[in-house]
Amino acid sequence: MKLPLILRSLPLSILFGILISCPAFSQTSGAWRLFETKHPVDKKLVALHINDAAGEVVDSSGSIDVTGAFQKAIDLVFGMGGGAIYVPEGRYRFDGSLIIKEGINLRGDFIVPEGQPVSGTIFEVYSGRNSPASNPFITIRGCATLDGFTIWYPEQDAASIVPYPPSIQFVRNSNGRYSKHATRVRCINLVNSYFGIDIGIINTAIPQACHIYGSPLKTGLRHCSKINWHSLC
Question: Which domain holds residue 54?
Fold first, then answer.
């Protein structure tokens, strides 16, 4: 967290007293810890567990809508200046949409979907059915990361396909400006997205997409600008 100049000049004892008086810091100060994921790269991660960031036990069985809990967690960490939120293996039901704000790294457990059943951290999306112009499932702003998730639409039927909005859409920052830092989407499995990733014309300065898997039903990726392609699978 980048501190204002006036705070950086204070003695540590006074600065710590100010920080612990902040509700968000008090709620999470003891919860940042090291996690090891099933992700094939960067296996160790210092983050807040989704339960600690949300202030509740977030359902991972796929039976309860967790949209509000996830957005609450993102908003809290954003208010602290940003950081990583770890979402362990499980099934998470979403009846609404998410905004991943600047400086947030939303990180799941990811297993490359090659010759094995889908597993890891799975987002089950129930929003946007037959409403392609509605909000994307995930809107991601500048200097944010979405890393290590499977996105699945349980109500989509391959025999009778219906439209949905994009699973992931890159946008400018909340102040309407382009980000000077990369926005990253990596290690994502789009199982049956109607429209996978929309980078479009209103995007970040350095959009990055790598290790993208899946079988989108209409559009895999749309872009109208320069992209840093590390790998697209």
Answer: 32-231
Would residue 144 count as lying in a domain? yes
pLDDT digits (tens, 9 = 90+) for 20-68: 334 454 455 568 999 888 765 566 789 999 999 999 999 999 999 999 9
DSSP state letter for 223: E
Mean confidence (pLDDT) of the chain: 82
Interatomic CA distance for residues 205 and 102, integer angstroms: 13
- Location of structure tokens 């967290």: 1
d(CA 118, CA 135): 26
Count CB atoms within 10 A of the CB of residue 126.
Answer: 15
DSSP state of 157: B
pLDDT band at 207 (very low <50, low <70, confident <90, very high): confident
Instruction: Reply yes or no on whether the pLDDT at 4 is more than 90.
Output: no
Q: Can you give the pTM of this predicted structure?
A: 0.83
Residue with tokens 């600008």: 225
Cα angle value 164/100/89 (rounded, 5°): 80
Q: Tell me, yes or no, whether 149 lies in a domain.
A: yes
Instruction: Please tell me the total count of domains within the chain.
Output: 1
Answer yes or no: are the C-beta atoms of 104 and 74 closer than 8 Å.
yes
> Residue 203 sits in a domain of what CATH number?
2.160.20.10
- The β-bridge partners of 221 are 197
Q: How many residues does the chain have?
A: 233
